[in-house]
UniProtKB/TrEMBL annotation:
Residues 414-591 form the Glycosyltransferase 2-like domain. This is Glycosyltransferase. It holds the Pfam family Glycos_transf_2. It comes from Acetobacter estunensis.
Length: 684
């Protein structure tokens, strides 16, 4: 059953419920009646199916109770039901139709078929009352039927930006190529040129002249032996593959985006697949840009455009000639690597819209081929970097990992650990840091926030004998920001690690990985991957919204790579948790340290945003993994006072950063983050 057929079934059930019972169906009832309808001859799509559904509802105890004492056979009952459901009186023809209905179920079916009754039925929300993730193809297909996946046009006057596209068609791909050409006809309000590459026989079979004559587009046929890598002269260039379909109006929106970013050198867009029945799935709703995405093969397999000016700058380099080798996917990746090298992130544009529907049989590069291409690029352009396959702690599969260099002189790391009467946690934490961590250039400052228990006091005396450890007593009401500010002032490391006492390390090189990330150009803060003791995800980055902050995919299995590999790849984020947060000392000093008005909540988020505002990046790496009890440091007990404080501090964060939080660049605008999931965003 297609998504449109599924939608029609749900509309029927909802409409009959509204007419007969005065309410929407609950999830169990919706599932029950949709299943019964689908089992009917014709799948419940015809008039007989609607009539049968109405009979089932009219026969229900709820219908009888609702209409108890009412003469449902009286002539005025039908018009009354009509008005209650539609909000208007029936016109003469409708009145005659109602009078002709011979039973209550016939009246219910007739009224339920009114188109106006269906207009405000939210089919997706009825079917997925708790929401649905973008990787659920059935949910996504249904979602696309009532949600626009392209942004609104932002320009009153269309920018005079033209685009060159290249489509290479092999024998046997003619039917797929015709679908691509037809999609170009729905983008005729933009000046585009399609360079159609194929043999004489292929070009003759495509009948491309009909598309070439529509709107501002034109088609230039080229034989394969004379086709260049990037034919044409338009300021932006891209490739299509046979079977790709540009979304209706996609190019006009993309041109708007390019006009808003006049310095852009590379644009990449969201995409999905479309099958023979017209259903859409396998959606790739990207986050914002970071170079790490490209180095592990993401962001180039869909629709993307390259700046012609940037291509001209690269024509003197050997890499551009190498980029012409291989199939289309390989060319795209090679060219993207060359075009984006040493380019400021603001010159890379993520177009947040589904610009292209990929053919259902289209294949991209495999992981090994991607890694081979990226390794060749790194060897010639960035030899200090390495790309390897690595297995995450707690996982089984291997994922691409970029290993960044360390300097000859290793930086000193000061680790700050606030604690109070949690001897069992602190003992494990310090044992792991001091004796299980493969990094010698470190010192540890334990901030004792007024411990009283004998076991804890003995432990503090013991650990203070280690020359790498100092204990600083801070006997005052708990204020995480003030404690850590005091710790920063009392330490000397050029890198500072804020660490909760309820963490335990999972592999010796965790700190080395965080240092490698911290020393990358422009990085100010690094976050780690934290697991609960049951090996599920506790922290894989923080997403922001107008309501506050939420952890990304909390509770996912340790071997879950996440949507588009988000749990298995190094990436830029807006914020990470302070439970294990590395920050440059000079970045802390630049922003004035932690905000001590944020005593317990939101202080780490606020710090990350201030560091970003100061021009540095926040990155998260899954290749530094620790176990985190979460709440072990300050406890989990909720009191009226702690609840009020939490919301007060959240309000302070939102008040300060509301404009940023309303649009977290690392989360697609089509998605919303809950505490445990990533869901398709519904209409407000």
């Amino acid at each position: 059953m297609t998504a449109r057929q599924e939608r029609e079934i749900i509309l029927r059930v909802a409409a009959v419920f509204r007419v007969g019972l005065g309410r929407d169906p609950e999830p169990q009832a919706l599932a029950h009646f949709t299943h019964r309808l689908k089992s009917l001859p014709g799948g419940g799509q015809d008039e007989k199916g609607l009539a049968q559904l109405a009979e089932w509802v009219v026969a229900s105890p709820e219908f009888r109770a609702r209409h108890e004492g009412t003469d449902v056979l009286a002539s005025e009952w039908g018009p009354a039901v009509f008005r209650a459901a539609t909000g208007r009186f029936p016109v003469a023809e409708e009145y005659r139709d109602l009078r002709a209905c011979i039973s209550p179920s016939a009246i219910v079916a007739y009224v339920a078929a009114r188109s106006e009754l269906r207009e405000d039925i939210d089919v997706f929300r009825l079917r997925y009352s708790l929401g649905a993730p973008p990787w659920d193809d059935g949910a996504y297909a249904l979602w696309t039927l009532q949600h626009a996946t392209l942004p609104l046009c932002s320009c009153v006057v269309r920018p005079e930006i033209t685009v060159d596209l290249c489509l290479s068609v092999q024998p046997g791909e003619e039917a797929a190529a015709r679908a691509t050409l037809a999609s170009l006809a729905t983008n005729s309000d933009v000046g585009w040129t399609l360079y159609l590459v194929g043999s004489f026989a292929v070009l003759a079979a495509l009948e491309w002249e009909s598309v070439a004559s529509c709107g501002q587009g034109r088609i230039v046929p080229i034989l394969p032996d004379v086709a260049s890598l990037c034919p044409g002269e338009a300021p932006f260039f891209g490739w299509l593959e046979a079977g790709d379909r540009l979304a209706d109006g996609a190019l006009s929106r993309i041109v708007d985006a390019l006009a808003a970013h006049p310095q852009a050198v590379f644009l990449f867009a969201d995409d999905d697949r479309i099958d023979a029945m017209g259903d859409r799935g396998d959606a790739r709703l990207h986050s914002g840009w970071s170079m790490d995405q490209l180095l592990v093969g993401e962001a180039t397999d869909g629709f993307c455009l390259f700046s012609r000016t940037r291509l001209d700058e690269l024509r003197q380099e050997d890499w551009l000639s190498v980029a012409s080798e291989g199939d289309m996917a390989a060319k795209r990746l090679r060219l993207a690597l060359a075009v984006t090298e040493e380019i400021a992130p603001e010159r890379i544009v993520h177009f947040p819209g589904v610009a292209c529907h990929r053919a259902s049989d289209r294949r991209g590069l495999g992981t090994e081929q991607e890694m081979h291409l990226v390794r060749r690029y790194l060897a010639s352009h960035r030899p200090e970097l390495r790309l390897e396959q690595a297995r995450l702690v707690g996982g089984r599969a291997e994922h691409p990992r970029v290993i960044y260099p360390l300097p000859t002189r290793r930086p000193h790391v000061s680790i700050i650990v606030p604690t109070r009467d949690r001897a069992e946690y602190l003992r494990t934490c310090l044992q792991d840091v001091l004796h299980e961590t493969a990094w010698e250039e470190l010192d540890v400052l334990v901030l004792d926030n007024g411990s009283r228990e004998d076991e804890m006091l003995r432990l503090l005396d013991d650990v203070a004998r280690d020359p790498r450890v100092r204990v600083l007593t801070c006997d005052e009401p708990f204020n995480w920001s003030r404690l850590n500010n005091a710790g920063v002032a009392a330490t000397r490391g050029e890198l500072v690690l804020l660490l909760n006492d309820d963490v335990a390390i999972r592999h010796p090189d965790w700190l080395e990985e965080m240092v490698r990330q911290a020393l990358r150009p422009g990085v100010g803060i690094v976050g780690a991957r934290l697991l609960y003791p049951d090996d599920t995800i506790q922290h894989a980055g923080v997403a922001l919204s107008e309501d506050g902050a939420a952890h990304l995919l909390r509770g996912a299995a340790a071997d879950d790579a996440g949507y588009l590999g988000q749990l298995a790849r190094q990436r830029d984020l807006m914020a990470v948790t302070g439970a294990c947060l590395m920050v440059h000392r000079d970045a802390l000093e630049q922003v004035g340290g932690l905000d001590e008005e944020l005593e317990v909540a939101c202080n780490d988020i606020d710090l990350c945003l201030r560091v970003i505002a100061a021009g540095r990046r926040v990155v998260w790496t899954p290749f530094a993994t620790l176990t985190h009890v979460d709440g072990g440091t300050r406890g989990t007990t909720q009191t009226p006072e702690t609840i009020v404080r939490h919301w007060r501090e959240t309000a302070r964060l939102v008040g300060r950063w509301g404009a940023w939080m309303r649009r977290d660049a690392v989360v697609s605008p089509f998605l919303r983050v809950t505490e445990h999931s990533l869901l398709l965003r519904e209409n407000e």
